[in-house]
Model the fold of this input.
Amino acid sequence: MGERAIRIGLIGFGTIGTGVIKLLQRQRASIRDTLGVGLELVRIADIDTRRDRGVKLARGVLVGDARVILDDPSIDIVIELMGGTGLARRFMLEAIAAGKDVVTANKALLAHHGDEVFRAVERAGVEIGFEASVGGGIPIIRTLKESLCGDRHQAISGIVNGTCNYILSRMSEEGGEFAAVLKRAQADGLAEADPSFDVDGIDAAHKLALLIQLAFRVRVPFTQIAVEGIRHVSQADIAFAREFGYAIKSMAVAKRCGDRIEASVRPTMVPRRHALASVNGALNAIAVRGEALGDTLYVGAGAGMMPTATAVVADLMDVARNRVHGSRGRVAPLGYPLRLQTRALTVPPDDRLGEYYLRFLLVDRPGGLGRIASILGVHDVSIAAVIQREREHGRAVPVVIRTHQTREQALRLAVRAIDRLAVVRGRSTVIRIEESIG
Ligand code: HSE
Done:
């Protein structure tokens, strides 16, 4: 085994970076004993070199310019925790071209430029660790790459955005509409000041794009993942869902449909009896359905300083171990050679099948419900159950319908026609029901 410590440079000293330094300091001896070689943090680069992050660093370790790390030939591994897809992409590609191994938590970068980054990694014969990019501390990337690699996967479904899960859980447990609960989450530091990436489903879609490549060995163009956020989910929907026996979760789902893949991120009703329905707060959970193994579920802290730091440090140790044993490239970035990856055929919107929950606000007068039912019938949408409330205030009453399995496109056309009826107030709500998730 080598004598020299593995030398590490960190770019981006935010929350996760701070957690990584804390963990490296706390676990220093144990890591050295485990690997037979130490991990030495040589430099940290961040534009903010003044803020006190509550960790002690030797003089000169923290610098304001990432070049100090990239241009240092003695640095073996670069951790990229700055985020974004501009500079981060450049820095990663530079580090890889210079023969350095890289570790990142940057799902946006890998979702948009993964091809380029993974190809560069394979070409340079270096390693990349990105366990922290999906599910924070949940070891789902390595699980798919290594532990489950002997199986063929049918579906992967997950709660992969902690912010959405926290908001929907609080709405469900304590009442309150989306806007008010989001404000409370922001005040508690559990939602970003600009929450769009999270609540509009983009962050989850980035993660799903990666999970698809790992689970199905294909690539789905990011634009072909149907993405819908949670802003429109209301207390009324949560209450009706409960009546039908469901909880509403923001679900990222990818499944095989014949030789095609269907991929979406959207508010989804999941049966309350399913374990995913009780994964609450900021927790994440990922369900994998394998042909041989069946269903497995991975639950844990999907974000946060120390949970995410554990994933980064595990990647560092893995990369360091392969360096020490001369086995770099032992496992390809995605678990299989990139040249074997194909572009997936996705299910066209016209052919997507599912069950749906619909909520309309209907003026209470004779024939109203009949007109809705008849439009659904014309579009071949079959009704499984209906709830209509009595009038409380004003003349409009909520009508809730659960459909049998139906074509998504036909349903959208039917709802558009229903929304144009004079007896219908406002825009109707459509939420997918997933009866059978992994
Ligand atoms: N913003 C993410 C979330 C955490 O809310 O789950 C980082 O992936």
